Amino acid sequence: MENSGALIVEELDDSRKTLATIIGVLPGFVYRCKNDKDWTMIFVSNQCLDVTGYTPDELKFNKAISFNEVIAEEYRSYLYSRWKALLKVDGMLKEEYKIVRKDGKTRWVLEQGKGVFDEKGKLLYLDGYITDITTRKEAEERLVQKNIELHIAKERAEDSNKLKTAFLANLSHEIRTPMNAILGFSDLLKEEDLQSEQRDNYVEIINNSGNHLLSLINDIIEMSKIETGQISPNLEEVDVNLLMGVVEKSLATTIPSDKKLELKYIQPRVRLTENIKTDPVKLRQILTNLISNSVKFTDVGSVEFWYECNMSEGGSINFFVKDTGIGIDRENHREIFERFNRILNEQTTNRGGSGLGLAIAKAYVEMMGGKIDLESEYGKGSLFKFSIPLIICKRCRTHASGDNLINSEDMTSSMRILVAEDEDTNFLYLSALLSKFNHIIFRAGNGKEAVDLVRDDDTIDLVLMDIKMPILNGFDALKQIKKIRPCLPVIAQTAYALSDDEQSIRAAGFDGYIAKPIMKQQLMDAINSICK
Ligand code: ADP
Question: Is the pTM of this model over 0.70?
């Protein structure tokens, strides 16, 4: 009898030891607690220190903290009601929730537990096991996040694909329409019995169509450069008043004669008397895009534009373009700034467009640290506004901001001009323009010839230099010419006509810049500014 008692004690001791070993090697901790609001712990294994940061002694009988307080607040009442429901049916709890460790860090845990009842069915306590599952949870969360991102990216790619398809279909139309006019009317020009008025009319149509094609090509290339991050602002000293005048003058000529439309630059109430620091090429392009849209989408009434200075909050200069045109539904306000997006309805179908103008304007404004917005309702006209930081230049001087307004007839005495140009048609066109003003023209077919001519003839007054030429390009030719005659003005005339091309050409040391196709006024302005 005594022996069997000792055996039982020994067995009990054995299984206690086995249990202790198993509990000791488990990754989490086991507990026995009361079913009260605090989950008062009666027993907790040592691993609770790893999981919660509290020792068993601190947790037992709520000595330092109750387990309820270790549970993250947002899970407390949920866990309480889950236990309550499960105990009614003698079920097993299996829940994942967050705890706040002693060091303040939040961790995910998994709890599995069960009620322990006496033979009469009275609940005595709860037994269970809690383990840290943060690593798994975080991996799951990352996976969910990745899935969401993938889903969004997929939707974006699909949307962008649809947009691109629509853009290409539209582009084909946008190219064919002016091409049709150019080819058709240049054919008609060959007819012998043409009245001079008809001829002028055809030439104007060809001219407008060419310009339209050119701006389309510029927009497409500019947009792709923006998207690949190749464009950045180039800050210069700018006379905003002068720039607004230039914009008004150049856009007034683009209003179709069949529109009863007035383009007005409203003089500001408080006029800037000093130059500001900004990117004049981009600023002019933004204004041009907004005003051209207003002209396109307005048949009668007016297109007005102006600026206002806001000296508070670091200072900004706000530009406005207001029209009395077809207006834009509120629901389209955001999407029209996305590339390729156009509103298609009976009012817009015949007005053409690539859906790039506003996307470029928005990208430029944001690049300069500003914001663009609009107020508009369908049928009630539109007001586009954008603001850029106002950086006043302390030193006050008048700056031509890439243009000046001198009349072409200012061209005074005859000059000896060297045109470096490898393309025959381009040279013929330039010499036709220049000889109207009695200038004497020399031609160099490449950069090297240009350098040789400058070296041999010190009577040359000005060089008009193409950039892309065989043997020696315009940049290298400029360097050599400036070594021979540092003061000889050299103007770049080039088909590298995007905003950053102008920047790199000016940075190379050219005295002026004209983009092809060269307009008469543009050429005269560039030459005049050099003569002055
Ligand atoms: P595009 O004019 O070449 O189509 P934009 O990006 O400049 O491309 O403009 C996108 C769309 O926004 C236009 O197609 C037009 O539907 C709408 N929109 C832009 N400006 C105006 C305006 N002033 N009035 C009415 N609608 C406009």
Answer: no
